[in-house]
Design goal:
Layout lengths: L1 E8 L3 H9 L3 H5 L6 E6 L7 E7 L4 E13 L8 E9 L4 E11 L2 E11 L6 H33 L5 E5 L4 H12 L3 E6 L6 E4 L2 E7 L4 E2 L1 H7 L3 E4 L12 H23 L7 E7 L10 E2 L9 H11 L2 H5 L3 E7 L1 E4 L2 E2 L1 H9 L4 E3 L5 E2 L1 E3 H13 L5 E5 L5 E2 H11 L6 E3 L1 H16 L4 E2 L2 H5 L9 H8 L10
Parallel strand pairs: 8-9, 8-13, 9-11, 13-14, 14-16, 15-25, 16-22, 17-21, 19-24
Antiparallel strand pairs: 1-7, 2-3, 3-4, 4-5, 5-6, 6-7, 10-11, 11-12, 17-18, 20-23
Helix pairs in contact: 4-10, 6-7, 11-14
Pfam family, one: DUF1731
InterPro entries: COQ10_START, DUF1731, Epimerase_deHydtase, NAD(P)-bd_dom_sf, SDR39U1, START-like_dom_sf
Protein name: TIGR01777 family protein
Length: 473
């Protein structure tokens, strides 16, 4: 069987080729609805291998691909570049994928040409339509990400930076790291074990820090000389269970970690140009139908108090003249985690229901738009202070669930009583699922930021592989 597709990309073929060769390309291209992870990647030259884990560590299989057919013909601005990956072992009976980058008048064309054979022997013909659909879904997703990532980098036209990132292994940090590396930037991960520090390969360094011990390897951080810093580390809000210990861990992981990092950055010479430090939509508390731009007052309760203290913890960096942005992140939407991970499987079974009366506002935002907004904050020299990270149009919980179900071709007509939500979800449900935060990204919009997926139905269709075509944003 054969699958071939083409994508117009607004960058030269050489840059399209380099993007595929850089660290992070696999992470950016992996469909979020599939449980896949990259175990090993040697490069894309002939003989290099990649090992991809399908499933979990305990349940799954390894897909081993070897590269061949490497050509740098486009680097002189005229010919084509390409590389191929051939399955050595894995889920298909055979797989041969040729990635070809060709110059065009508008930039370049990416050609994906896949020859494959399904397993199952005599049943392969029966399974062929399903296999074709899954491959079509995968490449529709890959093409949107490829086009949008490269367009963002081209529009930014920024020289290569060195960006230090805390929480680089988390949901947001791993996506941001892959995106930055794809743009030719070097990432310095702040890691919690000394043995994990040092060089990890091209564009990938690591520096030791330990919040509990109050330690940062300042000499290593000086040698890394970050131009910018993105601080995402902190105890996940899912750890909130109502106990004093959980509250203390959440409070201290955000305030102590931010203070430790800010003090270290202030001691560097030169200091980084910018610190983008995570905060959360919880800053505003539950406010009903009130529209909440960055100028809105904080709410009341534990989470607003945490967010206020969290943002205040950057004081030493700000006093050292480092431009500081507090990214108040809304409900991140992706099947890999955040808001969508627990909801998508339930609605896919036709069991979707909205919490309470369904009138609360959720400040949702697609994962890639979080990444693009953080990148924007790194480069916009006039952007300081709080920055709301939410889609331009927050939606009511009822509308979110019904749109999610519609994208999955399932019904959603059930109201889940608030008492049930509290009983099943506990403290987390009370502080997140039942909160109404009508947060709007006023600063980003005023600064000319363009959301890749501002509409909920398009965002969910993209994230779940449900778009009918390769429609680009």
């Amino acid at each position: 069987m054969r699958y071939t597709s083409y994508l117009d990309v607004p960058v030269p073929a050489a840059e399209l080729f380099r993007w595929h060769a850089r660290p992070g390309a696999f992470e950016r291209l992996a469909p979020p609805w599939q449980p896949v992870s990259l175990r090993e990647h040697e490069g894309i030259r002939d003989g290099d291998r990649a090992v991809i884990r399908l499933g979990t560590t305990l349940v799954g299989l390894d897909w081993v691909a070897e590269h061949q057919g490497y050509s740098e013909g486009c680097l002189d601005g005229h010919g084509a570049c390409q590389f191929e990956d051939v399955q050595v072992e894995g889920p298909f009976a055979a797989w041969h994928h040729t990635h070809r980058m060709l110059p065009s008048e508008s930039g370049s064309v990416l050609e994906d040409d896949v020859e494959y054979e399904l397993p199952l022997g005599g049943l392969a013909e029966v399974a062929a339509p399903f296999g074709e659909r899954q491959i079509e879904r995968m490449f529709a997703y890959r093409h949107r990400v490829t086009h949008e990532d490269l367009r963002r980098h081209a529009e930014a036209d920024a020289p290569p930076m060195t960006v230090a990132v805390t929480g680089a292994s988390g949901l947001l940090g791993s996506a941001l790291t892959a995106f930055l590396q794809g743009g030719g930037h070097t990432v310095v991960r702040l890691v919690r074990r000394r043995e994990d520090a040092g060089s990890r390969g091209p564009q990938d360094e690591a520096v030791y820090w330990n919040v509990e011990a109050g330690e940062v390897d300042l000499d290593a951080l000086r040698r890394a000389a970050p131009d910018a810093v993105v601080h995402l580390a902190g105890e996940p809000i899912t750890a909130l269970n109502g106990t004093t210990g959980a509250r203390r861990r959440i409070w201290e992981s955000r305030t102590k970690g931010t203070q430790l990092l800010s003090r270290a950055l202030a001691a560097l010479d030169p200091t980084p140009r910018v610190l983008v430090s995570a905060s959360a939509s919880g800053y505003y508390g539950s406010r009903g139908d009130t529209v909440l731009p960055e100028s809105a007052a904080p709410g009341e309760g534990f989470l607003p108090e945490v967010c206020r203290a969290w943002e205040a913890s950057t004081a030493e960096a700000e006093a050292a003249g480092i431009r500081t942005v507090h990214a108040r992140i809304g409900l991140v939407t992706t099947p890999k985690g955040g808001l969508l991970q627990p909801l998508a499987p339930v609605t896919a079974l036709g069991l979707g229901g909205w919490p309470g009366d369904g009138d609360a506002w959720w400040p949702w935002i697609a994962l890639d738009d979080v990444v693009y907004a953080l990148h924007h904050a790194l480069l916009d020299d006039d952007l300081t202070g709080p920055m709301n990270l939410a889609a331009p149009e927050p939606v009511r919980t009822r509308d979110f669930i019904q749109t999610l179900a519609s994208v999955q071709n399932r019904p959603a007509v059930v109201r889940v009583p608030e008492e049930w939500v509290r009983a099943l979800g506990g403290e987390l449900a009370r502080r997140v699922a039942l909160q109404s935060i009508r947060m709007v990204p006023r600063k980003l919009l005023d600064r000319g930021f363009r959301f890749a997926t501002p509409d909920l139905d398009v965002a969910l269709g993209h994230l779940l592989g449900r778009l009918d075509t390769h429609t680009l944003p």
